[in-house]
Specification:
The complex is a heterodimer of chains A (325) and B (304).
Chain A lengths: L1 H27 L8 H6 L5 H11 L5 H13 L21 H36 L4 H15 L2 H16 L13 H7 L1 H27 L2 H8 L4 H38 L5 H10 L3 H28 L2 H4 L3
Chain B lengths: L8 H8 L5 H10 L3 H18 L1 H4 L31 H37 L1 H15 L3 H12 L3 H28 L2 H8 L4 H9 L4 H24 L11 H8 L10 H4 L3 H26 L4
The chains are: A mainly alpha (325), B mainly alpha (304).
Amino acid sequence: MNLIVQTILKRLALGVVTLFFVSLVIFSAIQFLPGDFGEAVLGQAATEETVAAFRRELGLDVPAWQRYLDWVGAVATGDFGTSFSGRASSGVDRSRPVMELIAPRLENTLFLASITAMVAVPLALFLGITAALWRNSIYDRVVNAMTLTSISFPEFFVAYILILFSALWWGLPTLANITEGMPFWEKVHKSLLPSMTLTLVIVAHMMRMTRAAIINLLASPYIEMARLKGQSRIRVIMRHALPNAWAPIATVIAFNLAYLVVGVVVVEVVFVYPGVGQLMVDAVASRDIPVVQGCAMIFAATYILLNLTADIIGIVTNPRLLHPK
Amino acid sequence: MTETNTYSAASEVASTITRRTRWERMKITLSKAPLTAWFGMIVIVFYLFVALFAQWLAPHGEADNSFAAYLPWGEAGHVFGTDQIGRDVFSRLIYGAQNTIGIALATTFLSFMIGGTLGLAASIRGGWTDQILSRIVDVLMAIPSLIFALMLLSVFGSTAGSLIIIIALLDSTRVFRITRSVAVNVVVMDYVEAARLRGEGLGWVMRREILPNIMPPLVAEFGLRFSFVFLTIASLSFLGVGLQPPTADWGSMVRESASLMQFVQYDLKSGLTPLLPAGAIALITVAVNYVVDWFLHMTSGLKD
């Protein structure tokens, strides 16, 4: 048991170190901005005093390491600074804190991701495991060719094909303009098309990875041994294959949930879904760096956390660590 | 005794076992290719042809907006109509092939130059070089690449140059990983040791000793990376932060014509316009994936 705790702690420490470096990278984004971006944000008519005040607010008058520490401290308490937009040269400051912009949208994005995951994960596991069990059959080949095709499609292509079908025959809402306080089922109804798009994209990835993991496992000598002993197919899978399969399956699920976090950006833009991804794209277009940093930090942290969870599940369910010699 | 003995074993052997030429071997391999691979190769050749000869194939100019806006399909010689400011959609599709494929190819080459060289260097040198490079790559890979690309583009602005460099850098992490993982198995071979002992430099060992032995996985990876880069650039352009107008590019063409989709009940053809560039993107990535799939099957000799 000690060995497991040790491995998990090691992995957690590695995750923290990665998060630290990622925050360093995201923070340094603002360093590379051209020197006169104060004028660019505030407009050409900005007085020298407002520009100087703006630079002071961003802390450009203190050394970079101190600014980084301040920034990390603020981020740890959920404060990503204030957005660049809404600042005018007149000195009237209508900008909003980044967190205020992100919070309601994060909720929407997580809603979309979770209803997608609830459908996609069981479906992909079922397809992947059955394809692995009956490999090289017609079923396997059809599923394989279909997923290879849908992996190669860009998300927006899948989205527009679904919109086309919907406009012609299904009559589903193609604009996912969900708002706060909307009844739950109405929200689900409005986000049907975006979550269908995401499902189609990630089921393909997840199914292929599950299939490869299971086939890899079934090819190992101890499974062959169990079969040669004359054990039933079900028993071979449940007793022998499954304990070793938890780790790869957990990795596959976490990897694809992480992929979901990235995939939402394009899908949110297609369906005008009010989520973090769309906020980020808008912020990139208007070069609103604090908002971009906030979104990037949230996406990266989710991504790292999900991968960390997968690793820890892999460690906890590893039979070799559970029963040390 | 004027008769001389003209018999030579070597000539007889040479006459019976003629070595197949490269062309013949290629023909045999190709004849065994599955249908999907054939489909992929034909599509790729067609795309390359269109990309190379876009200037001669396109009936109108790339940014020629001298026509009426939103003409329907087939009107006034515009096969797929015109877009929102009166540019010929068919011509822009053809020019889009040139721009999008060109930029994706340049990016993939650059990312292989960076990632491949560093990966080989890390595996040959080992020790600290390997440790430092691998840890940097670990950190960079912990950030989803589309998010990272969006962030960097917001800082550096969206030009073709910064697009190529940013995506190549992000993508080179994956090239680094695969190059390093296949090269470490070759580095321990005796002939590499021999080359080092006779005093060859790092560059020679990389190019002449290791690279020829790790070519097949790298070629397959090139195809996969190309389609991935292609999709990333298309997505970024679709989001409006990739290639900037008036450059014709499939991703931004989808975005510009997306609103036509709402009218598909009333005019099916016009409503399909956004699907043309989107389908063009999908088709080439499918084609590349099919060919890579076949290539992997062939070179690995594995069934899975």
